[in-house]
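Deliverable D2.4 — example input (structure tokens):
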């Protein structure tokens, strides 16, 4: 709107309120005049809060990396109990953020489902795509969860820990070694 010289000031308060309610706001103009706004909101999946709580209990640091407006991201993060928020991030910036975290000697798992997530999924230590997402995201990830359920991330974590434990037991308890 700014690039087109369209003043959104008359609807900025309403937009801020909608963003604080976790909606993405799109301004609409006709004939170079502000005509209104549209609010779009994705409902949280019922499994999201229990899954993220479970991951937090395993001392996994949770962060939100999103292209959404900061107010929208903060509203969603509050619902999910996430305090580390990276908002208004472009796709290449998502990948850059992942790389910066890895340079701090962190293993980084990225969960995503969209075209905008593909670069970050590809650069993450473990890229986890939701099978319900875009083909580009699925092709960019190292792990694909067939459902769109975040509990799959929890199950994958438990499975990987059990597999690692089994491998360690076999290596260190093997009398042939």
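Example output (designed residues):
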């Amino acid at each position: 709107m700014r690039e087109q010289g369209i003043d959104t000031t008359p609807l900025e308060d309403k937009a801020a309120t909608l963003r604080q309610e976790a909606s993405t706001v799109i301004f609409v103009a006709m004939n170079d005049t502000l005509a209104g706004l549209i609010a779009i909101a994705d409902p949280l999946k019922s499994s999201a809060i229990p899954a993220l709580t479970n991951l937090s209990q395993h001392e996994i640091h949770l962060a939100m990396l999103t292209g959404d407006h900061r107010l929208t991201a903060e509203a969603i993060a509050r619902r999910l109990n996430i305090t580390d928020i990276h908002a208004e991030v472009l796709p290449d910036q998502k990948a850059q953020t992942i790389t910066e975290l890895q340079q701090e000697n962190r293993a980084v798992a990225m969960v995503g489902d969209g075209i905008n997530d593909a670069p970050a999924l590809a650069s993450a230590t473990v890229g986890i795509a939701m099978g319900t997402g875009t083909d580009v995201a699925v092709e960019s990830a190292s792990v694909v969860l067939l459902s769109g359920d975040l509990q799959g991330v929890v199950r994958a974590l438990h499975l990987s820990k059990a597999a690692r434990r089994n491998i360690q037991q076999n290596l260190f308890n093997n009398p042939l070694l």
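The beta strands are 24-30, 33-40, 63-65, 84-86, 109-112, 126-130, 143-145.
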